[in-house]
Amino acid sequence: MDTSYRLREADTNDREQLASMLYTNYFETEPVVRNDDLEFRENLVRERLDMMLPNDPLQGKTFVVEKEGVLAALAFVTPDLKKGGWIVDDLFTYAAHRGKNLATKLLAACEDFVKIQNEISIHLSVAENNPALVSFYEKRGWLKQSFTIAGQQTTIDPDTHVPTHHMVKQLNPP
Predict the structure, then answer these.
(1) What is the predicted pLDDT for the residue at 64?
(2) What is the model's pTM?
(3) Three-class DSSP category at 40
(4) Which of 17, 33, 44, 173 could form a disulfide with 71 if both were Cys (CB 3.0 to 4.6 A apart)?
(5) Three-state SS for 1?
(6) Cis bond leading into 54, ω under 30°?
(7) Could you give the number of structural domains in the chain?
(8) C-alpha span between 27 and 41 (Å, rounded)
(9) Contact 62/18 with Cβ under 8 angstroms?
(10) In this structure, what CATH number is given to the domain that contains residue 95?
């Protein structure tokens, strides 16, 4: 990551930029939510922001990478209330900033945070139709489970079902 980028914890001053990033990620780049209702979209982004900010270690942690005060990437790690443990629930880099190892640095920050919580593993879900992203995680030590979860509800929108791979990474103690 070149020195013009800075990784840090998100704070409430980032809310507007985070809202824009979430909207782009959920509805424009590779839409995981197919609802066209503007009010639904705005409520969804607001609900997600309320989960992500403020950064309460018991509820999760949001990390961002910024360049000259503008957010370029984000990651949100949170306790997984369904499966237990911790899940990387959002990881997104704007297209203009891809290929600069920002996602790798964000994943490392999430992993370090989860280690501090005395967890031995972390997990995430990847859309089955995105083999490049599966490969990205595998190169960083994540293991794809031997099954695809067909029609799993997304944590973003319970009415959206996306076939996903469950991926796990074992963590070394801090």
Answers:
(1) 98
(2) 0.85
(3) helix
(4) 17
(5) coil
(6) yes
(7) 1
(8) 8
(9) yes
(10) 3.40.630.30
Cα–Cα distance for residue pair 169/150, rounded to 1 Å: 21
Structural tokens at position 37: 């209702």
Contacts 24+ apart (CB under 8 A), 139-143: 140/104, 140/107, 140/169, 141/169, 141/170, 142/167, 142/168, 142/169, 143/167, 143/168, 143/169, 143/170
Reduce the DSSP state of residue 105 to 3 states and report it. helix
* CA dist., res. 148 & res. 60, Å (int): 26
| Closest residue by Cα to residue 74 from 29, 116, 33, 34 | 29
Neighbours of 158 (CB within 10 A): 8
Q: Which range of residues forms the domain containing residue 101?
A: 5-170
Q: For residue 71, which of 17, 29, 23, 12 has the smallest C-alpha distance?
A: 17
CA separation, residue 141 to residues 109, 113, 115, 135 (Å): 15, 17, 15, 10
- What is the percentage of the chain residues whose pLDDT exceeds 70? 85
User: Taking the CB of residue 130, how many other CB atoms lie within 10 A of it?
Assistant: 14
What are 19's two structure tokens? 């809202």
65-93 pLDDT, tens digit per residue, is 999 999 999 999 999 888 888 999 899 99
Q: Are 32 and 156 in contact (CB under 8 A)?
A: yes
